[in-house]
Task: inverse folding
């Protein structure tokens, strides 16, 4: 018992600030979303009007959630729960990988396994640690909604749903750690599962059946294979159903059991998908700093490109769904189509813009990882070894930045190709092929800023590179994608690069925002390249 408590307290002490930040942020998001919805949409009539537009516009349902009526509490749940599910999912997957695969990577897991604690107690301590963390998430969400003035019983169900979703992703993260040979690979795979769950939930909501009054939606089957969709099926505030939470709990039991089975059959440090053994001598094509950077990050880049391609594929599939919406909800859709087309765009084009915003976030995360890898190489001491060769720091640093920029472009190319292919297969002709590629290009400047900004942090405050990098991306998504819904002022939303991404229309696109962001990105990159020559490698 003492050994278990030691391991549990070690995890609690190590995660105390991260855990506190995650839980407080999620609870604060629930509170601010409630107050923002109450002030922006004061009565049932105005909320019903918004819901009519939402049920006629799949793009809104993809980003928001399942529509369950115009009451303040149900409307708030519709607006924010899916995003809370994403945050809970990321918090749990990172936690699972940090205490499993990352521990094996550094050798600490083997040291612990050689003690009386054995090999199974660390896994048990991690599961209990995650369980307590998700109880805190559930309490924070429930308290946030109740503090905002929502019904207590419904808030408790919403909190339990958030905690159950987080627990499902904790166990998926544990299982991903068994399959991947590195913590980066496990984090990428687990985060990809979170994004896939969000998109599946969005696809199920967007293609669901709309009621005659246009105020409720019955989700289609894709929502039922997503842990976030299971949380939505509780119908918090309108139905308060608890039985859908058996699904994430059941998934958790299955994943933990599979994790235990795999652990019992492999050596410490091994994985189901083993990394390839390297050559004794490098090929001539690999004898360069850019090739080294590519070799270190090729797996992560491939994963982000697959994510971009999947996001693109969903675009064309939704084209057919949009046509179905025009049949089932014709009066509202006709009016909405007219409003959108008056601005020089179409409803399908609007869906593409929304999905490519997700692609832009994936591209930004891919570029950010290039800088994070620089910091990891520096902390591990391998950067110092590389720079002991006749090699300038500028060339070493510039190679990682160049690869980061190329990977951003590559993710958006895959997203555009997926969208183009799926639109072609679905027969949707409302969008020209050129507009698809232009929409993808429009997301690149904002994504590149998430390469340049962390690079500037890396050369000035290296120890802050990882937390500041991810915090900048999270802040950009909250302000740029959800800032309007949360009621933030325009000046605050304008701080997010995603707010300034050009919107492609048939009547002409204003590219000025993209050019400004490119200029800022180039200036920050030049500053970083010059400044990296003036600091010590291995600085903390």
Result:
């Amino acid at each position: 018992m003492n050994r278990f408590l030691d391991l549990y307290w070690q995890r609690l002490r190590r995660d105390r600030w991260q855990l506190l930040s995650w839980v407080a942020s999620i609870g604060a998001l629930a509170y601010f979303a409630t107050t923002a919805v109450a002030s922006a949409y004061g009565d049932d009539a105005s909320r019903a009007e918004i819901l009519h537009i939402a049920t006629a516009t799949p793009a809104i349902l993809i980003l928001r959630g399942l529509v369950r009526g115009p009451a303040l509490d149900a409307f708030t749940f519709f607006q924010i729960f899916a995003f809370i599910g994403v945050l809970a999912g990321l918090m749990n997957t990172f936690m699972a990988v940090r205490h499993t695969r990352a521990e094996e990577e550094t050798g600490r897991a083997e040291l612990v396994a050689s003690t009386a604690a054995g090999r199974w107690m660390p896994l048990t301590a991690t599961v209990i640690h995650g369980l307590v963390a998700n109880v805190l998430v559930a309490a924070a969400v429930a308290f946030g909604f109740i503090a905002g003035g929502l019904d207590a019983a419904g808030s408790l169900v919403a909190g339990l749903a958030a905690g159950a979703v987080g627990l499902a992703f904790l166990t998926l993260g544990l299982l991903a750690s068994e399959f991947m040979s590195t913590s980066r690979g496990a984090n990428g795979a687990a985060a990809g599962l979170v994004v896939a769950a969000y998109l599946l939930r969005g696809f199920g909501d967007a293609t669901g059946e709309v009621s005659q009054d246009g105020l409720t939606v019955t989700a289609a089957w894709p929502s039922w294979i997503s842990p976030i969709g299971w949380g939505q099926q509780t119908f918090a505030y309108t139905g308060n159903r608890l039985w859908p939470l058996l699904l994430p709990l059941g998934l958790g039991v299955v994943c933990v059991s599979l994790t235990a089975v795999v652990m019992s059959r492999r050596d410490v440090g091994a994985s189901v998908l083993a990394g390839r053994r390297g050559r004794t001598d490098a090929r001539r094509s690999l004898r360069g700093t850019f090739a080294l950077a590519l070799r270190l990050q090729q797996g992560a880049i491939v994963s982000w490109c697959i994510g971009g391609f999947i996001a693109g594929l969903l675009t064309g599939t939704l084209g057919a769904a949009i046509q179905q919406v025009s049949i089932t909800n014709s009066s509202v859709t006709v009016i909405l189509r007219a409003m959108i087309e008056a601005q020089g765009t179409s409803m399908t084009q609007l869906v593409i813009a929304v999905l490519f915003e997700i692609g832009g976030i994936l591209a930004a995360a891919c570029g950010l990882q290039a800088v994070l890898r620089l910091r990891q190489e520096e902390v591990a001491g391998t950067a110092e070894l590389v720079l002991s060769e006749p090699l300038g720091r500028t060339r070493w640093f510039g190679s990682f930045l160049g690869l980061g920029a190329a990977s951003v472009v590559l993710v958006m190319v895959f997203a555009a190709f997926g969208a183009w292919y799926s639109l072609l297969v679905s027969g949707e002709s409302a969008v020209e092929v050129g507009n698809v590629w232009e929409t993808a290009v429009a997301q690149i400047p904002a994504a590149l800023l998430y390469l340049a900004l962390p690079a500037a942090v890396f050369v000035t405050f290296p120890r802050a590179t990882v937390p500041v990098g991810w915090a900048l991306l999270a802040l950009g998504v909250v302000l740029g994608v959800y800032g309007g819904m949360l009621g933030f002022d325009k000046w605050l939303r304008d701080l997010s690069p995603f707010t300034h991404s050009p919107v492609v229309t048939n009547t002409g696109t204003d590219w000025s925002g993209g050019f400004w962001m490119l200029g800022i990105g180039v200036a920050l990159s030049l500053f970083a390249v010059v400044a990296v020559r003036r600091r010590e490698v291995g600085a903390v």
Notes: The mean pLDDT is 84. The radius of gyration is 24 Å.
